[in-house]
Amino acid sequence: MASPPVLINPNFQSAPVRLASPGGGGGCVTRPSAQADNHHRAIGVWTFYQRITDYASFTLHNLPNGMEPHCGDMSSRRLDGMTVDDEIVNRVTWKIPNALALVGSSDGNERNAMTTSWITQLSMEPVLIGIGVDNTAVTHRLITNGGSFTVNLWDSQDTKVFVKFSKPAVDDGTTLNGRPVRAFVTGAPVFDEAMAWMDCEVRHHLDLGTHTLFVGEVVGAAINVDDARPASMSDTRMKYGGVKRH
Question: What is the pTM of this model?
């Protein structure tokens, strides 16, 4: 049975906090390059790509003494005298366990929701939730101007919703991409179908490069389905993070 929404901070003022809009670009590696895609389609075997990168990693770390690593056309970066291949960075960061949720945002009459995996709690008193948002995303602009966001946790058995919200949502006034939403404390959209949700007012923001860390205080929350397991990246074939794709 769904629990009633809980107002965490009774002193919360509904007027949005206006924030200076940070600059910067965005975009992350989420798939192999277009050239690699064409090659994969030609041979029809994805494992070929994995074996090549595994072999490259093994060779890089087992070179004879005095021999310098050479990566040819493979992208790499130099860290403290060590060459780190971008593909290895991607594969390692993709292994970080991440939740998967829909982040709702609004600014006036404009609303959106976005699939997000960079979510974490940052403080217990006050209760602060941090999310990482691409600086070029619609959600970034709405959170910056609107001063709030919601985190909507989803049942791990229903992950198709995340594909639909990988691009700006269609708002018909009562739904986003056909999923019913409503406003509670801050005005940012909360999904009726979410297994649990948090409504957050932005307290801090930090431009970190390609993404901004928005830190929000939880001012409202509810649980709709208490016995379901929330979705995570490992429940899907989606990947997000690693090195920025150029």
Answer: 0.69
